[in-house]
Amino acid sequence: MLKRPGRLVLLGHPVSHSLSPIFQNAALNAAGIPLEYEPIDVEPRDLRLLLRNLKNAGAAGNVTIPHKVAVHASCDDMTAIATRVGAVNTFWFDDGRLRCDNTDVGGFDAAARALVGDEITAAKVVVLGCGGAAAAVLAAIEQWPRARAVIVARNAERAAALARRFRDVARVGKSVDAIVAEATLIVNATPIGQQDDERPLDVKLISKTTAVMDLVYRRGGTPWVKAARRRGNRAADGLPMLLEQGALSFQRWLGIEPDREAMRQSLL
């Protein structure tokens, strides 16, 4: 049986926008667990000291931007999927050892399956971005039968490096118009649209049969998702993925399934 964490926290910079404390505390309340999930805004230079303090408290929690790679580098043990992605979003201490996982992969997989169903088989996926979120997306896609992905990103060097890591399923795209026209699913794995109304791609370039998934989430939906839905495209923002990765993290920390409906209702 898992030992209950001394604290549950979210580490990021900034974290004030995060919805995770709302739904994680709803899940804790539904399970009758007397813990509070706390957001901690920590600057990169203070992260290592904070991790030592959390170790002493027997804490567990989540990691968000910009600390996912830094915590990955500090882990004593990690799951195979966290190693594959090269970033972590979930951690806990066990016998003084920092153990880590990446539940973003499972969160994306569940959200994508809910959006496109059986079309994940032989899917042609366009991934916008080349950071940690894009790596988690590709780690899920490489488990889909005969699926292929094209990476579209501003940083050509990082995009090429990511494509090499996932060479069995991914390549870097050149002609965006042609790639987008043939896509089964387009995923925004960049921060575009988080703070303003900028859109990662003009929806007029997208076929109406193509599904759109924005890993960014905002209350009421992101501008990109709303524009896609107005055109008639199937579209989802990052909330389904956020909820599922949070549920998988909860299960890692506490060894029980959370009440997903209580989590979802807390955000309505």
Walk me through what this model shows:
The protein has 268 residues and is α/β, with parallel strands linked by helices. The chain folds into two domains: 8-102 and 241-266, 3-Layer(aba) Sandwich (Rossmann fold); 105-237, Rossmann fold (3-Layer(aba) Sandwich). The protein is 40% helix and 18% strand. The protein contains eleven helices and twelve strands. A six-stranded mixed beta sheet has the order 2-1-3-5-6-4, with helices on both faces. Strands 9-8-7-10-11-12 form a six-stranded parallel beta sheet, with helices on both faces. Strand 1, helix 1 (20-31) and strand 2 form a beta-alpha-beta unit.
List the helices and strands and how they pair.
Elements: E1 8-12, H1 20-31, E2 37-41, H2 47-57, E3 60-63, H3 68-74, E4 77-78, H4 80-85, E5 90-94, E6 97-101, H5 104-116, E7 124-128, H6 132-141, E8 148-152, H7 156-165, E9 170-172, H8 176-181, E10 185-188, E11 211-214, H9 223-231, E12 235-236, H10 239-254, H11 260-266
What key attributes describe this structure?
2 domains; 268 residues; Rossmann fold; alpha/beta; 12 strands; six-stranded parallel beta sheet; six-stranded mixed beta sheet; single chain
Helix content range: 25-40%
**Count the helices. How many?**
11
* Low-pLDDT residue spans: none
CATH class assignment of the largest domain: Alpha Beta
Question: Which structural class do the helices and strands define?
Answer: alpha/beta
According to DSSP, the number of beta strands is 12
Q: Going across the biggest sheet, name each strand in turn.
A: 2-1-3-5-6-4
In short:
The chain has 268 residues and is α/β, with parallel strands linked by helices. The chain contains eleven helices and twelve strands.
